[in-house]
Write a structure and sequence with these properties.
The chain has eleven helices and twelve strands. With about 325 residues, the protein is of the alpha/beta class. Strands 3-4-5-8-9-10-11-12 form an eight-stranded parallel β-barrel, surrounded by five helices. The longest helix has 21 residues. The structure holds NADP nicotinamide-adenine-dinucleotide phosphate.
């Protein structure tokens, strides 16, 4: 399958995006260890060279917009129209580094304007509400997003971390082209609600955590010791019984990798972008070799026999988790 064939339409818009997008959170260096702006710039270049045209950032990606700053360095190296830049507003960090949800319309506008300054561009292709604000009705945040759309600062609007009732309430006030939930080969909760809703409303599903923060890249061994500062150890999937069962599952992927000649990360991302209703998987990376590897997922298809093996391993893990 050619890379060109992997361009997909973003909702009902005229925008076309690659089925693998580059997630810029690791470049922010807030939870990832060892990120630096030189490697990050190389990562964006490698992504672009590998056929990725879709960059995912946010106002909150970095204490001072570090991921926006790297994208700004890359933008002069290509035509602006060759890149689809998506950002998000509605989350920021307070002076103590604590996460704050504030999605009042004035705040959303101010965050987008600040991001545009950091990005050194006049518009973003897609602006998401990063997450609903518990203190602001979502319809009010949606009204703020509609104004950003009408002002031309954002070409299209999306939402992230919402449920179906919030999708209904948001879209009553503002049209959207994309919804950004977490989803991967092990965490498939959205298949029963978000994906059908998006299909029905011609909204793209742009998923985050396809590699489950590296767990599904297959390089973390069973006896891996997380560094003191590595926040991944706080997630259940990296702990106790889940960690053991996840390693059993990844062992099956490792076997498929040996048989197919494709890496575990490629297999996992390939599986994700070929699920019904999925437009793009946002793969995080902070080094060029990482995104080169995941971008290769756009160039081939998993054999049916291997798909069945993956499904059996998934069902076995689900059974064992329930016991
Ligand atoms: N809307 C939201 O609320 C939200 C939330 C989370 C994420 N996102 C978006 O989704 C993107 C993806 O999420 P994510 O970055 O957290 O997680 P992810 O894509 O599931 O995993 C990325 C991590 O996997 C490891 N990795 C990547 N490629 C690899 C490779 N080829 N080989 C080995 N390891 C590899 C890297 O970790 P190491 O380098 O540390 O090994 C990298 O930081 C984010 O960057 C962000 O744009 C959005």
């Amino acid at each position: 399958m050619s890379i060109a064939r992997q361009r997909r339409r973003l909702g009902n818009s005229a925008i076309e995006v690659s089925s693998v997008g580059l997630g810029c959170w690791p470049m922010a260096g807030m939870t990832t260890i060892g990120a630096n702006s030189s490697d990050s710039l190389d990562t964006i270049r490698a992504a672009f060279d590998a056929g990725i045209n879709f960059l995912d950032t946010a106002f909150a990606y970095g204490a001072a917009g570090e991921s926006d700053a790297v994208i700004a360095k890359f933008l002069p190296e290509c035509e602006r129209s060759d890149l689809v830049v998506a950002t998000k507003g509605g989350i920021h960090w307070d002076a103590d580094g604590k996460r704050v949800n504030d999605a009042r319309p004035a705040v959303l506008r101010s965050e987008l304007e600040q991001s545009l300054e950091r990005l050194r561009t006049d518009y973003v292709d897609l602006f998401y509400l990063h997450a609903p604000d518990p203190n602001v009705p979502i319809a009010e945040s949606a009204g703020g997003c509609r104004e950003l759309l009408e002002s031309g600062l954002a070409r299209t609007i999306g939402v992230s971390n919402v449920d179906v009732s919030q999708l209904d309430a948001f879209t009553a006030e503002c049209p959207i082209v994309a919804c950004q939930p977490p989803y991967n080969i092990l965490q498939r909760g959205i298949e029963s609600d978000i994906i059908p809703w998006c299909k029905e409303h011609s909204v793209s599903v742009v998923t985050y955590w396809p590699l489950m923060k590296g767990l599904l890249a297959g390089k973390l061994k069973r006896d891996h010791q997380f560094a003191e500062k590595d926040s991944r150890k706080n997630y259940e999937v990296f702990q106790g019984k889940q960690w053991e069962l996840n390693q059993d599952f990844v062992d099956v992927l490792r076997e498929i990798s040996r048989e197919s000649g494709h890496s575990v990360a490629e297999i996992v991302v390939n599986w994700t972008i070929n699920q019904p209703g999925i437009t793009t998987a946002l793969c995080g990376a902070k080094r060029a070799d990482q995104i080169r590897e995941t971008a290769r997922a756009m160039t081939w298809s998993i054999a049916d026999g291997h798909l069945q093996k993956i499904q059996s391993a998934f069902e076995l893990r689900e059974q064992k988790l329930a016991n």
